[in-house]
Amino acid sequence: MKFVHNATDLPTKEEYDYIIIGGGTAGCPLATTLSSKFSVLLLERGSDPNKYPSVLNEQGLLNVFAAGDDGKNPFQRFVSEDGIENIRARVLGGGSMVNAGFYSRGHQEFFASAGVDWNMELVEKAYEWVEETVVSQPILNAWQSAFRSSLLEGGVIPDNGFDLRHLVGTKTGGSIFDNKGNRHGAVELLNKANPTNIKVATEATVQRILFSG
Ligand SMILES: Cc1cc2nc3c(=O)[nH]c(=O)nc-3n(C[C@H](O)[C@H](O)[C@H](O)COP(=O)(O)OP(=O)(O)OC[C@H]3O[C@@H](n4cnc5c(N)ncnc54)[C@H](O)[C@@H]3O)c2cc1C
User: Fold this and answer.
1) What are phi and psi of 177, to 5 degrees?
2) Would you say 172 and 103 are in contact if contact means Cβ atoms under 8 Å apart?
3) Residue 25: which CATH number?
4) Predicted confidence band of residue 1 (pLDDT cuts 50, 70, 90)
C-alpha cells in the first residue's frame, strides 16, 4: 500500500478532515470507510506487520505468548491495575495481527441493548464487507472435530454447522486464518481505501492532542 509511510517521511504540518489514532482492528476499517468521502490520516505507533513475519501466519501465534517486549515488537506486555499480566498489540492492524483469529458476528442482544438505533441492513452489509476480505471457514483438525462432537454429545445443541452468527448451541465459527494458515488482519481492509484520500503513518506514537478554539 503506497499510502503507508513511516511517520518521519510525512510533512510536519498538514490538514485532514479526520485523524484517527490507532491503526488497529477498529481504526483500519474506520479510516478506510471515511476515505471514501473525506481526507484521512491514520496514526499507528507500531510498524508495518510485514516487518514481523511471525504475525502473518498461524505458526507465529505462539510468539505472542513467548516473545519478550523490546519496546518495538508487535506485542506490548503490560500488567493490569489488578495485577493480571497481559499483552496488547503494537503493530499496524492492531489486535487482529496478534490474536487467536476467532471471528463471530455480535450477539443479537448486544444490538438490542446498546442504546443505538441501528440500521440492521447497514450492519449486515458492514459484516459482509469485513468478512469477504478477512474471514475463512476453517477446516477442523482431528482434535477440533472431536471437541465439536463431544459438545453435541454432551447436549450443547442445536448443531448450527458453520455459521458466522453468534448462536446458542454448537457451531464452527469463522477464522481470520485461511486454510494455508495465513493471517488476514484488519490491515487488509486498508486495501479498500480510496488511496488519494488516505495516509497511514507507522511508528507514529501520539503523545498529546491539543484542542483550540
Ligand atoms: C492474545 C489475544 C488473543 C485474542 N483473541 C481474539 C480472538 O480470537 N477473537 C477476537 O474476536 N478477539 C480476540 N482478541 C481481542 C481482539 O484482538 C481485540 O478486542 C481487538 O483487536 C481490539 O480492537 P481495537 O481496535 O479496539 O484495538 P487494537 O486492535 O488493539 O488497536 C489499537 C491500536 O492503537 C495503537 N495505539 C495505541 N496507543 C497509541 C498511541 N498513543 N498512538 C498511536 N497508536 C496507538 C496500537 O498500537 C494498536 O495498533 C484477542 C486479544 C489478545 C490480546
Assistant:
1) -95, 130
2) no
3) 3.50.50.60
4) confident
CA–centroid distance, 23 to ligand 1, in Å, is 9
Q: Looking up cell 448450527, which residue turns up?
A: 160
Nearest CA to ligand 1 atom 14: 99
Whether 6 and 95 share a structural domain = yes
Q: Are residues 137 and 75 in the same domain?
A: no
Q: How far is the CA of 27 from the centre of ligand 1 (A)?
A: 10
Distance CA 129, CA 140 (A): 25
**Which of 4, 6, 44, 73 is the pocket-test mutation for ligand 1 (most atoms within 8 Å of CB)?**
44
Ligand 1, atom 36: nearest CA belongs to which residue?
Answer: 22
Residue numbers of the domain that contains 60: 1-100+183-213
Kindly report, residue by residue over 180-199, the tens digit of the pLDDT.
999 999 999 999 999 999 99
CA dihedral 57, 58, 60, 65 (to 10 degrees): 140
Residues lining ligand 1, judged by CB closer than 6 Å? 21-27, 43-46, 64, 87-91, 94-96, 98-102, 204-206
Query: At 66, is the pLDDT very low, low, confident or very high (cuts 50, 70, 90)?
Result: confident
Nearest-CA residue for ligand 1 atom 17 is 95
Task: Identify whether residues 94 and 192 lie together within a single domain.
Answer: yes
pTM over 0.85: yes
